[in-house]
Amino acid sequence: MNMMQEVLIDKVVVNIGVGQSGDRLTKAMKVIEMLTDKKPAPTAARKSVREFNIRPGMTIGTKVTLRKESASVFLKKAFYAKDFKIATYSFDKQGNAYFGIPDYTEFEGQKYDPDIGIFGLDVAIVFKRRGGYRVARRNRQRKAVSRSIRVTKDED
């Protein structure tokens, strides 16, 4: 196989959707910071949901994006929590993987803290090839990534 066709991890996004701002959101931020050792960013609602009393722009969740070494370190912990298994339906057509962990205490070394409570989290893994993706992200002569370069569901 060509070295430039090698499939790599581009980034890992860890997300906790709380659905409300305030005390629960700060606790969710503490959970993400405990697990990733990175400062999380708040996420805002895009649409209004009347049943949940959510308006656009209201902070309702938190996330952190991990790249390179910190991404692989976190994935080892996350796969330990999932017993090193991911279902086939967790992969989309582009070859990215998504899975959820129902409780942060499933991570190795984490104990239940009654002050924080129980929080589950979503993990998104984005894959890329070593070569070719810069074409879609550069400023000059930006083009679409060809099909031969894209990562597919079968390759993961």
From TrEMBL:
InterPro entries attached to this UniProt entry: Ribosomal_uL5, Ribosomal_uL5_C, Ribosomal_uL5_dom_sf, Ribosomal_uL5_euk/arc-type, Ribosomal_uL5_N
Keywords tagged on the record: Ribonucleoprotein, Ribosomal protein
Record flagged with keyword Manganese: no
Pfam families with a match to the protein in the record: Ribosomal_L5, Ribosomal_L5_C
GO cellular component annotations of the record: ribonucleoprotein complex; ribosome
One BP annotation, GO: translation
Residue ranges constituting the Large ribosomal subunit protein uL5 C-terminal domain according to the UniProt record: 60-138
Keyword Ribonucleoprotein appears in the UniProt entry: yes
Entry GO MF terms: structural constituent of ribosome
All residue ranges annotated as the Large ribosomal subunit protein uL5 N-terminal domain in the record: 2-55
Family that this chain belongs to: Belongs to the universal ribosomal protein uL5 family.
Official protein name in the record: 50S ribosomal protein L5P
